[in-house]
Amino acid sequence: MNEAIEIVSEFNIRGVFHSFTKEAKIAKKIIALGFYIGIGGVVTFENSMLSREVKYIPLERILLETDAPYMTPHPHRGKRNEPAYTVYVLEKIAKIKSIPLEEIAAITYKNTKKLFKF
Q1: pLDDT at residue 104, rounded to an integer
Q2: Residues 6+ apart with CB under 8 A from 39
Q3: Domain ranges (residues) in the chain
Q4: Taking the chain, what is the end-to-end CA distance rounded to the nearest angstrom?
Q5: 37 in helix, strand or coil?
Q6: pLDDT of 16-42, one tens digit each?
Q7: Which DSSP letter does residue 57 get?
Q8: Once rounded to an integer, what is the mean pLDDT over residues 71-84?
Q9: Cβ–Cβ contacts within 10 Å for residue 12, how many?
């Protein structure tokens, strides 16, 4: 991860670190470079470190994602992942951050629009 951060820091680019699963301190380094943090199904796993760390990642830099067909969120873990399961990621982040579901959805949607310029 540190090598990836070092490499992208050499260029004037922006994007998303897809399927992020590391500590919040690493997320903050990535965010400082102008990137977003992609949070997927791993955050819903029972013993996931990410579920403890996501509360420290600024919501304004989070994108919700799937990694279809992989890393399916609980309660569908072990099955083929699909975009419809993003709602479980949304629900888990709302619970962790103690923020209403609708607010998380609105902010992450705004983040997506901003990043992809639509």
Answers
A1: 98
A2: 20, 50, 54, 57, 62, 63, 64, 65, 89, 93
A3: 2-116
A4: 29
A5: strand
A6: 999 999 999 999 999 999 999 999 999
A7: S
A8: 95
A9: 8
